[in-house]
Design goal:
Length: 403
């Protein structure tokens, strides 16, 4: 999985109760293809076992600076790392790192490495708010360390809720991906990317609506991949069946009109527009104010077309903006896609056949054909939607050359 495959991540774990989450983070990184070298402080081993990390990563676990036969571990690990993440980073660890101490293996690695470092603090909310901790955090940032601040939530020992909780492993995983991706320059870095995802719903009465089977997986995958590449991402989403992506600014909508309005608001500052949503094409001409009762005679539903969101943006797009559309078809998919490419003035269209196994709604895979404004056609094999998202954004980056 991009960008982990073949890269080495040093996962530092300091001694806090949140270290149990670090084991799952190690699993996520390893499953994505990274070589994970876990480095546990002595206090961390009071909370979690090194054997757990060895079993999850398939690699030796490192703990002591002076363990027999490992006198230069801090140099080897510092040089081999493509990225270093310390999760949890306790108040004590932050203090030691901020003052440049190197009395343990993990702090020695930080002093010896040239790799990017992500620190993930986790502690009691009062400890996090203390002026000394905040001064340490500020100083570490000034030294070039990246900081993923703690979240608010239930704390240990019945302390209630407050800022200090370590983010979930999936969130940290996404930030490590962005950290690794930053080592390779991307034409999307710093650019404004607007993605739409999911279905819309058009009310029939207070309890029924017209919609479709879209889960939003493809749009969410694109938003995630764009943020990972350093873009500033906005996601306009109808009702999703999947979690919203880390890092994106999410605007939740329900109807096609609402989606069109929000897209219009964001359009003037958008460098890349990716319309992956599946808005309803039709809506009832009349919405009942109360539930339509079931009777012997079924009611006749009169409908009208909803606005074509993508086509309506044609005269309002930012100069040199790159626009990507989607064509989910059941007949003559490529021909229909080429027509949409021209009719809606697109730079790229992503075509797929809803009837093909593994390529329709509600699955984690897709098989698409990419067609650009020059008519170049590229058929991709069946891939995960994450892989499809990266293939689409690779083409977007090619189109961005010279813009």
């Amino acid at each position: 999985m991009r960008p982990f495959d073949g890269h080495t991540v040093v996962l530092g774990v300091s001694g806090g109760i949140a270290s149990y989450k670090s084991a799952w983070l190690a699993r996520l990184l390893t499953k994505a293809g990274a070589h994970v070298d876990a480095v546990l402080t002595r206090s961390a081993t009071e909370f979690v076992s090194g054997l757990t990390f060895e079993a999850l990563t398939g690699r030796p676990v490192h703990a002591g600076l002076f363990d027999p036969g490992r006198a230069l571990d801090h140099i080897g690990l510092a040089r081999s790392a493509d990225a270093i993440v310390v999760a949890p980073a306790t108040a004590d660890f932050l203090a030691r790192a901020a003052s440049g101490q190197s009395g343990d293996l993990l702090t020695a690695i930080l002093l010896a490495t040239k790799a990017s470092v992500l620190l993930v603090p986790a502690m009691n909310d009062h400890m996090w708010a203390h002026r000394q901790t905040q001064a340490n955090v500020s100083h570490l940032r000034s030294l070039g360390y990246r900081m993923l601040e703690p979240e608010e939530g239930m704390l240990a020992a019945g302390e209630g809720e407050g800022p200090g909780r370590m983010p979930e492993p999936e969130t940290i995983f996404a930030h490590v991906a962005r950290l690794l991706e930053s080592s390779t320059p991307s034409r999307l870095a710093g650019r404004s990317v607007l993605v739409t995802a999911g279905p819309t719903r058009e009310a029939i009465d207070p309890v029924r609506f017209i919609s479709n089977h879209s889960s939003g997986r493809m749009g969410v995958a694109i938003a995630s991949a764009a943020w990972r590449r350093g873009a500033e991402v906005s996601l306009v989403a109808g009702p999703l069946s999947v979690a919203t992506p880390v890092g994106a600014r999410v605007r939740v909508v329900s109807t096609t009109d609402e989606m069109a309005r929000v897209v219009g608001e964001l359009l003037p500052t958008t460098d890349v527009l990716v319309m992956a949503a599946a808005p309803s094409d039709f809506r009832p001409t009349h919405v009942a104010t109360s539930k339509i009762k079931k009777s012997a005679k079924a009611p006749v539903l009169s409908t009208e077309a909803t606005p074509d969101i993508l086509k309506s943006t044609a005269n309002r797009r930012r100069a040199n903006a790159i626009v990507v559309g989607f064509a989910l078809e059941t007949d003559d998919a490529v021909a229909s896609g080429r027509k949409k490419l021209d009719d809606k003035s697109l730079d790229l269209i992503v075509v797929n056949d809803a009837t093909e196994p593994g390529a329709g709604f509600g699955v984690d895979t897709n098989r698409v054909t990419l067609i650009d404004r020059l008519g170049t056609e590229e058929k991709l094999p069946l891939l995960s939607k994450t892989e499809v998202a990266d293939a689409i954004l690779d083409r977007v980056e090619q189109l961005a050359r010279g813009r």
